[in-house]
Amino acid sequence: MTAPQSQRFSQRQTMRRSDFEAFFYSDDYIRDVAMHHHDFFEIYLFLSGRVRYTVESRHYDLMPGDILLISPQELHQPVFSREEQAPYSRIVVWIDADWIRRLGSLYACDPCCCFDVADPAHTNLLRLSGAERKPVFDLALSIIGREETSDAFSELLAAVQLLELLVRLNRLHERANRRGE
User: Fold this and answer.
1) How does strand 20-27 pair with strand 76-80?
2) In this structure, are residues 177 and 126 in contact, taking their beta carbons and an 8 Å threshold?
3) Confidence (pTM)
4) 114 within 8 A of 173, measured Cβ to Cβ
5) In this predicted structure, what is the pLDDT of residue 1?
6) Which of the 8 DSSP states describes residue 54?
7) How many C-beta atoms lie closer than 10 Å to residue 37's C-beta?
8) How many CB atoms lie within 10 A of CB 64?
9) How many CB atoms lie within 10 A of CB 67?
10) What is the per-residue pLDDT for 145?
């Protein structure tokens, strides 16, 4: 799937919708982003640029294709390299905590377990192989494309794709924890 039109980056840290929001950003220059937290889950899919991402007291030097899983209330901040000339591109998905927990309560699994900071093996970073990464990124791009369409069926399909994305991320997170990554 090809990337949708890049959206204009906003420093807004609140959700406008009551379920989820998805964004594709590509910036040549971005101002510093302050350390912050919010009350929703965030999936951050890094595409390009040079960024060191801080989540709580952990620092991640990101590589294209890295995924960060950020829980509600976790302090986080991107720190940008000023000498890098490549565009800073990423996909960001915000998920309302109450909405996803209500959906998860309908099934015998927790779609948010990959975000569980209480798990001793928890890591915010998923660094996947190309074969593992492609379907995850394709799903995220498809969600953005569906969000740009306004009919009810597109919204429902985007919600289904978000659930599929969470299932994939949970399985990959579990597999990475078993390997000790």
Assistant:
1) unpaired
2) no
3) 0.88
4) yes
5) 47
6) E
7) 17
8) 13
9) 24
10) 80
Instruction: Measure the CA–CA gap between 174 and 43, rounded to whole angstroms.
Output: 16
Q: What pLDDT digit, counting tens, does each position of 73-117 carry?
A: 999 999 887 776 678 899 999 999 999 988 888 888 889 999 998
Give the separation between CA 173 and CA 171, rounded to whole angstroms: 5
Strands 88-96 and 58-61: unpaired
Sign (positive/negative) of CA torsion 46, 171, 73, 54? negative
- Which tokens hold the place of 169? 């991320």
Whether 111 and 100 have beta carbons less than 8 Å apart is answered as yes
Residue type, 174: E
Element (DSSP H or E) covering residue 152: helix 152-179
Structure tokens at 89: 């591109």
152: left (phi over 0), alpha (psi -120 to 50) or beta: alpha
- How far is Cα 45 from Cα 90, in angstroms, rounded to an integer? 6
